[in-house]
Amino acid sequence: MAIQLNDREMAVSDIPCDSLMMLTSALAGILSGSPSEIIEWSLEPEYAAWIFSRSGPNLTFSLREDSGSEAIVIERNEPTVIVDQILAALSDLSECDFWVKDAEDLHIWSWPFPANELNRLKSKRE
Question: Within a 13 Å sphere around the CA of 109, how many CA atoms are in the beta-carbon half?
């Protein structure tokens, strides 16, 4: 699956970890006041990381493109602004055809979409 962040694109794999589930868990942590959260994305064999860290009232969202690179700041803003942007992208992703179990030819992610977790996050933001 391809993920686009600003001018960067990552082709991520679902093996060995369910990064979408980790992302929803991290967003829940951020909304609960966690000082930092890290989500690993498998690039086979490398890993990229999304790093969320609080500094005062702001949240910094950084990307480490592989294990040997420095983190690049993607955005610095209020936590709810960043979380809401990611929730909107996850909502769009949840409507893609490849989450349908019967669509094996479209199925590109081994793990089920974390729909319940996404709905809980959305209800926290309403």
Answer: 23
Residue 111 has a pLDDT of 82
31 CB contacts (<8 Å, ≥6 apart)?
79, 80, 83, 121, 124, 125
- The 10s digit of each residue's pLDDT in 50-97 is 999 999 999 999 999 887 889 999 999 999 999 999 999 999 988 877
The residues, ordered by sequence, that sit 6+ positions from 32 with a Cβ below 8 Å of its Cβ are: none
| 68 phi/psi in degrees, rounded to 5 | -100, 0
Q: What is this structure's pTM?
A: 0.84
